[in-house]
Amino acid sequence: MKYVRVDRILPENLITEIQKYIQGEYIYIPSCPETRKKWGEKSKNRDYLQSRNTTIRSKYRGGQTISNLAEEFFLSDSSIKKIVYEKNK
């Protein structure tokens, strides 16, 4: 998250109004829900994890054991179980 000085982006009358509620502290102004990205969309982590999980499921169906998959993908046995037993995938 990048901080921006308010006096560089907001008109003085709006700054005065905000100062009635908060002074000298940081406030967070979230982006509009319409423009908000889902987790991992910007960094492509979401795509990577979906691809990895598809590969894990495929290898499991092909006969790989949970323990072998956990070792190969550096995950715990319980994480692999969650992936391979997940519904609708």
Topology:
Layout: H1 12-19, H2 45-61, H3 66-73, H4 77-84
Distance between the termini: 34 Å
Largest sheet: none
Poorly predicted residue ranges: none
Helix- and strand-based class?
mainly alpha
Estimated radius of gyration? 23 Å
Anisotropy-based shape: rod-shaped
Order of helices and strands: HHHH
Q: What is the residue-mean pLDDT, rounded to a whole number?
A: 90
Helix content: 40-55%
Summed up, the helix count is 4
Based on DSSP secondary structure assignment, what is the total number of beta strands?
0
What does the model show?
There is one protein chain. With 89 residues, the chain is mostly helical. It has 4 helices and no strands. It has helices at 12-19, 45-61, 66-73, 77-84. The longest helix is centred in the middle third of the chain and has 17 residues, at 45-61. The mean pLDDT is 90.
Record keyword descriptors for this entry:
mainly alpha, 4 helices, rod-shaped, 89 residues
Q: What would you say about this model in short?
A:
With 89 residues, the chain is mainly alpha-helical. The protein contains four helices and no strands. The protein is rod-shaped, with a radius of gyration of 23 Å.
